[in-house]
Amino acid sequence: MQISISVRHGHVSEPAQAMIREKLEKLDRLYDRLNAINAIIDLEHRNQPVVDLKASAKKHEFVAVGEAENLPAAVDAAIDRMEQQLRKHKEKVQDRHRGAGHRA
């Protein structure tokens, strides 16, 4: 899975980027069909950073936005929203496959 992190209106330290990358890598365990994740960190308002996550899988795109008073909290909020979307999608796909076999 390819992970890219970009920052607007500021700079994020290497240790902070490593922490974000580590958290994003865990999403692959939740839904293993992810191809790429793009994280865009917007520091235009220092007291309210915004984190946009865009994940792509085969034929699907997932988008989550997190906003909080500090960067780690904003990252966690965005990842929580992304996890919810991935879980919901995974359950949908599994239910669709289970339902097809029971009709005989």
Total tally of structural domains? 1
Percent strand equals 25-35%
CATH superfamily descriptor? Ribosome hibernation promotion factor-like
Quick one: overall form? elongated
> Residue ranges: pLDDT <50 for 5 or more in a row?
none
CATH architecture: 2-Layer Sandwich
Average pLDDT level: 91
General description of the model:
This protein has one domain: Ribosome hibernation promotion factor-like (Double Stranded RNA Binding Domain). It is of the alpha+beta class and 104 residues long. Helix content is 45%, strand content 31%. The chain is built from three helices and four strands; from the N terminus they run E-H-H-E-E-E-H. Strands 1-2-3-4 form a four-stranded mixed sheet. The mean pLDDT is 91. The chain starts with a strand and ends with a helix.
Tag the structure with descriptive keywords.
alpha+beta; Double Stranded RNA Binding Domain; 31% strand
List the helices and strands and how they pair.
Blueprint: E1 2-8, H1 14-25, H2 27-30, E2 34-42, E3 50-57, E4 60-67, H3 71-101
Parallel strand pairs: 1-2
Antiparallel strand pairs: 2-3, 3-4
Q: Gist?
A:
The radius of gyration is 16 Å and the shape is elongated. 45% of the residues lie in helices and 31% in strands.
